[in-house]
């Protein structure tokens, strides 16, 4: 007699709305310069009169600064502060009006404001003065004249007491401001939102229905659930030492699904001496990664840092440099096209400009164009540091990152390129509210976004800070993957080691293992009810489902299934003959 078991899989959408004390990822974070500012987030939070509809009530001015109110043709009111010149002739910063605030200890603050300057463009910083007198940079933006730019940021207060909020620029400009908001969230509120977001964006509920040959539901069927590969890419930097150390190989490959070669695919590793190319180490590392189905990010085609060029490169004339670059680009990209998932094309081109000084301001867009022509499948990343880490660094702030990305996109022939946002994430003491605000802003580019080189400097809070950064990245709906910059070296790591030289976990490695296990947590077995169904809350990934039933004796079937953010389009059926 033949029996048929029908297994149906239905993905249940988890789109219910949820809010924790009004905290949400800001999907309205503007990357455009607007004629009029938007309304303040959170209705201004603890800021009084943030839209200046009541004049300058609640705001104060620094000494010798003239402040007033102006309005746009549409009637929108905003504060205008005229720059004060130093009587001594010394340079003085341009300042806005300020407001006295009361800060609460152990509280995250989310900041937003709309800014404009009187002429040209200027880097404007937001400051929060804490109860101990420290001036904390809570965000910055490249503000323009003639339109409004949104500054998003934040900071954490660790003690309670009086403080101030104000804006400042080193440029000789008048600062205009509007729609200022500063919203507090307790640590518990922040963490609860982060947990809920992670559950929402990294997991889905799947309904498994078991039916007999007659189509009737089969109760008491056993469903064994095996996660084969996690869906969220999480990895680490990799070094050539793995080729000679089985213990290193075992430790690394049992944990990570993606990797970046720390140095072995860089130009200076492949052509230290001119015309003497050597890819043997990179080839061997790639072969090992492929053995374990570990995906590799190509790092990098070029590095814009003057100090990272080989000695033979810097003295080349323009024609010689172009020829050397063409050779390098074609050599590395064609060699690894189809074998790497990403390219860091012109590494750190916001902080550095070696190729721009040689080839002109369109050097980066031209190089992206050429790489994209040779590898049409890999995502081409703009990889940069301090965009998340240091709100006071004027070079890589989100607004400038967006401008550079748009320059690459708008270059002739680049409109169809697969581009990505690469955020290195080298932290000392992370400013978590600012990190989230920067991710919100960059998410408006609607491009794949990865944390590409995550580490935290050694110190008493290294484990705690790394956990905050990794959880924040994992929970953000626009982050598509994370790689740590904790490559192992016998003589010591860059700034963060996960293991000792015997590949036994250090405290940071133990944390990483804890997070990997947590992000994979799921029910491994379930029994169908009277309706023949069972619902499984599963992290995204690739699975095998093994289904058995008492009426089938020892026979069982194994069904492959992928769970991701997209709901299953329809029921999937499988027949088991016994």
UniProtKB/TrEMBL annotation:
Residues 1-17 form the signal peptide. The keyword Hydrolase applies. InterPro entries: Galactose-bd-like_sf, GH, GH10, GH10_dom. Residues 218-515 form the GH10 domain. GO terms for biological process: polysaccharide catabolic process. GO terms for molecular function: endo-1,4-beta-xylanase activity. Keywords: Carbohydrate metabolism, Hydrolase, Polysaccharide degradation, Signal. The keyword DNA-binding does not apply. Pfam families: Glyco_hydro_10. Belongs to the glycosyl hydrolase 10 (cellulase F) family. PANTHER family: GLYCOSYL HYDROLASE (PTHR31490), OS10G0351700 PROTEIN (PTHR31490:SF8). This is GH10 domain-containing protein. It comes from Oryza sativa subsp. indica (Rice).
């Amino acid at each position: 007699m033949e029996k048929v078991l029908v297994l149906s899989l239905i993905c249940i959408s988890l789109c219910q709305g949820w809010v924790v004390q009004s905290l949400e990822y800001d999907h309205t974070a503007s990357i455009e310069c607007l004629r009029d500012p938007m309304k303040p987030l959170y209705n201004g939070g603890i800021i009084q009169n943030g839209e200046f509809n009541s004049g300058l009530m609640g705001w104060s001015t620094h000494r010798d600064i003239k402040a007033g109110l102006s309005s746009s043709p549409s009637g929108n009111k905003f504060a205008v502060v005229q720059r004060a010149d130093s009587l001594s002739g010394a340079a003085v910063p341009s300042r806005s009006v300020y407001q006295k605030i009361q800060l609460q200890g152990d509280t995250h603050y989310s900041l937003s404001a709309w800014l404009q300057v009187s002429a040209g463009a200027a880097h404007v910083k937001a400051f929060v003065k804490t109860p101990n007198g420290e001036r904390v940079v809570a965000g910055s933006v490249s503000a323009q004249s003639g339109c409004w730019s949104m500054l998003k940021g934040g900071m954490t207060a660790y003690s309670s007491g009086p403080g101030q909020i104000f804006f400042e620029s080193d440029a000789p400009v008048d600062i205009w401001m509007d729609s200022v908001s500063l919203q507090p969230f307790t640590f518990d509120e922040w963490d609860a939102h982060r947990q809920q977001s992670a559950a929402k964006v990294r997991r889905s509920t799947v309904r498994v229905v078991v039916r007999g040959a007659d189509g009737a539901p089969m109760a008491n069927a056993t469903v064994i659930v095996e996660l084969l590969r996690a869906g969220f890419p999480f990895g680490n930097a990799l070094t050539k030492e793995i080729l000679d150390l089985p213990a290193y190989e075992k430790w690394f490959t049992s944990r990570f699904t993606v990797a970046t070669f720390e140095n072995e695919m860089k130009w200076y590793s492949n052509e230290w001496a001119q015309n003497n190319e050597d890819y043997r180490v990179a080839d061997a590392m790639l072969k090992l990664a492929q053995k374990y189905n570990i995906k590799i990010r190509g790092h990098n085609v070029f590095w814009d840092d003057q100090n990272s060029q080989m000695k033979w490169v810097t003295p080349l004339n323009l024609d010689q440099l172009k020829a050397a670059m063409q050779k390098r680009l074609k050599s590395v990209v064609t060699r690894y096209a189809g074998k790497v998932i990403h390219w860091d094309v012109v590494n750190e081109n916001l902080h550095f400009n070696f190729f721009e000084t040689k080839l002109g301001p369109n050097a980066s867009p031209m190089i992206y164009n050429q790489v994209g022509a040779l590898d049409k499948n890999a995502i081409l990343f703009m990889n940069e540091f301090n965009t998340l880490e240091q709100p006071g660094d004027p070079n890589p702030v989100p607004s400038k990152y967006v401008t550079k990305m748009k320059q690459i996109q708008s270059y002739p022939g680049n409109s169809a390129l697969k581009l990505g946002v690469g955020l290195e994430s080298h932290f000392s003491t992370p400013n978590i509210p600012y990190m989230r605000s920067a991710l919100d802003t960059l998410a408006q580019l609607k491009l794949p976004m990865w944390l590409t080189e995550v580490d935290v400097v050694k110190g008493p809070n290294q484990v705690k800070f790394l956990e905050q950064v990794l959880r924040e990245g994992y929970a953000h709906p626009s982050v598509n993957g994370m790689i740590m910059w904790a490559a192992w070296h016998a003589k010591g790591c860059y700034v963060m080691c996960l293991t000792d030289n015997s590949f036994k976990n250090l405290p940071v490695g133990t944390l990483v293992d804890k997070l990997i296990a947590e992000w994979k947590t799921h029910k491994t077995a379930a029994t169908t009810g009277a309706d023949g169904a069972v619902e499984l809350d599963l992290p995204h990934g690739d699975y095998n489902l093994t289904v058995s039933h008492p009426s089938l004796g020892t026979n069982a079937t194994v069904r492959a299934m992928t769970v991701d953010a997209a709901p299953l389009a329809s029921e999937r059926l499988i027949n088991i003959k016994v």
